[in-house]
Specification:
about 375 residues; mainly alpha; three-stranded parallel sheet; two-stranded antiparallel ribbon; 16 helices; about 50% helix; flat
Length: about 375
């Protein structure tokens, strides 16, 4: 939904297009009996993409079977190859009921609600190669084309080096040297008469950053903070980054780690080399300016926003599933309260630690 046809045609090089599921453009038009428009749509993708396939999904859904029949005809008429796919919403067939409950939890409904969002059956699991071959025995080329598409996809990614962006560094300098220069410039500002302890701490931290090869990362953070300061955007630093005198000398954090007795190794250390993480908060009504700057500087294909996936804890799982099953609140609450309060608690662990919960589990149908 983010790409229109003009943009797609402009950047078609190297793309492989599939016509998608029942909700795809071609299939939707067929389902609405707009057969001429369905052909026009398929023809456009055939002519504007280097590789385009009509996607066939075989599931026991009446509309889908009718769509597939027409797609077979369009494939022959317009000489567009077919590809077999499997609409997959969960891994194993036996996961269907758990998936159904998760849908209820996500849509705040119960399994007793007839109008709720639900799947058509328990067949939307990841099928084995043997199952797929059996389903498409009459059109084996649709199976063969899955292999052809896989062979077309060729991405080589080097995991042996850090894929970090780099800022412009003065000619004749390395990232390590430039970072060191910036820090010693900042040392005069933030520590006008530095003691030997302060100098030793700075040299030690720079040594760890050199050893772990994270100078580029620290310089990128400094570059972002420099832009933010120049444009009077409010920002703050959270977490272990405040324990670094390097970040203090760069003006990234306003906290003096020595005065506050903060340990640098919480941020970065040689024994456990992990990506450092400088958590920056920006004023919410100007955050887009920061993202815009980073995108312009490093390229649109090198900037992404991340998501945090939430999982259900043991108590939350019991409460949510109980509600989705339409069980009385009092019954669910009684069982949920038997789960011990402890970090990383699982239902299995709860049963081991609470004999009362174990008893309820085995005796209360």
């Amino acid at each position: 939904p983010r790409i229109d046809k003009e943009l797609l045609a402009e950047h078609k090089e190297g793309l492989v297009g599939l016509s998608a599921c029942m909700s795809g453009e071609v299939a939707s038009l067929v389902n609405q009996n707009r057969f001429g428009e369905a052909r026009e749509s398929a023809r456009w993708y055939r002519d504007n993409l280097e590789n385009f396939y009509l996607e066939i999904q075989r599931h026991p859904i009446a509309e889908l079977e009718r769509i597939n029949q027409e797609l077979l005809v369009i494939s022959k008429e317009l000489d567009i190859p077919l590809v077999a796919t499997c609409d997959t919403h969960y891994l194993n067939q036996e996961d269907a009921s758990a998936h159904d409950l998760l849908l209820c939890i996500g849509t705040n409904s119960t399994i007793n609600d007839e109008k709720r969002m639900k799947m058509d059956g328990d067949f939307l699991y990841l099928k084995s190669p043997e199952e797929m071959e059996a389903l498409y025995r009459d059109i084996p080329e649709a199976i063969e084309n899955t292999g052809k598409i896989a062979d077309m996809c060729n991405l080589e990614f080097d995991f042996n080096r850090l894929q970090l962006p780099q800022i412009e560094i003065p000619e004749g300098k390395t990232a390590d040297e430039y970072l060191s220069d910036l820090c010693y410039e900042g040392l005069e500002t933030f520590y006008p008469n530095p003691t030997q302890e302060i100098k030793d701490r700075l040299e030690y931290e720079l040594g760890v950053i050199r050893y772990t090869q994270f100078s580029d990362y620290v310089l990128v953070v400094w570059d972002i903070v420099s832009f933010v300061r120049e444009n009077d955007i409010h920002f703050g630093v959270r977490g272990s980054a405040a324990s670094s005198i390097v970040l203090r000398c760069l003006g990234i954090t306003e906290i003096d780690p020595l005065e506050s007795g903060l340990v640098f190794e919480r941020f970065l250390n040689e024994e456990r080399i992990e990506m450092p993480d400088v958590d920056l908060d920006f004023q919410d009504d100007r955050r887009d300016e920061v993202i815009g700057y980073v995108t312009r500087k490093y390229g649109q294909d090198r900037v992404a926003q991340i998501i945090t996936f939430g999982t259900l804890g043991a108590k939350a799982a019991l409460r949510d599933v109980g509600r989705a099953l339409g069980m009385p609140y009092a019954d669910v609450d009684r069982v949920a309260k038997l789960v011990p309060l402890a970090p990383h608690m699982t239902l299995e662990k709860a049963m081991e630690e609470s004999s009362e919960l174990k008893s309820v589990y085995h005796q209360d149908s």
